[in-house]
Design a protein that fits this description.
The protein has about 110 residues and is mainly beta. It has one helix spanning about 80; strands spanning about 5-15, 30-40, 45-50, 55-60, 65, 85, 95. The protein is about 5% helix and about 40% strand. The mean pLDDT is about 85. It binds zinc ion (ZN) (2 copies).
Length: about 110
C-alpha cells in the first residue's frame, strides 16, 4: 500500500479580526481573508506555493468581494460646504443661513 498523500492544498488565512459589512447580506460578518496554496503532505501544509490576494469573505452567506470594492463609502460632503454661497452684491463667500452679508451688509435673499 502506498500511504503517501501529497498535493497542493488551499489554506484560508484570516488577516483581520475586525468584522466588516457584507455587501451581499448586509450583516457585519465579512472578514478580511487570504487563500494561500501550500504543498502538503499527509494533509499538513509544508511549503507555501502561492500567496493569495486579500479578499473580503462573508462567514454568513459566503459572499466574496475585493476589499477595495464598493464597500468603502466616500466621505459625505460637509453641510457647511453645501450651505456656502456668495453675496449677490459684493461676491464675498457667506453661509446661506446668514441674513446679511458680513462684508458689505447687503441682505441675503
Ligand atoms: Zn453576507
Ligand atoms: Zn456682500
Amino acid at each position: 500500500m502506498f500511504f503517501l498523500i501529497g498535493g497542493i492544498q488551499p489554506r484560508t488565512v484570516t488577516l483581520d479580526d475586525a468584522k466588516r459589512l457584507c455587501a451581499s447580506c448586509g450583516l457585519a460578518q465579512a472578514r478580511l481573508k487570504r487563500i494561500d496554496h501550500y504543498l502538503s503532505l499527509f494533509f499538513i501544509p509544508l511549503i507555501l506555493i502561492k500567496r493569495g490576494q486579500p479578499l473580503l469573505m462573508c462567514e454568513r452567506c459566503g459572499f466574496v468581494s475585493s476589499p477595495e470594492g464598493p464597500g468603502e463609502r466616500p466621505l459625505p460632503i460637509s453641510r457647511t460646504e453645501l450651505d456656502k454661497k456668495n453675496c449677490q452684491k459684493c461676491g464675498s463667500p457667506m453661509e446661506s443661513s446668514f441674513r446679511y452679508c458680513p462684508h458689505c451688509g447687503a441682505p441675503n435673499n
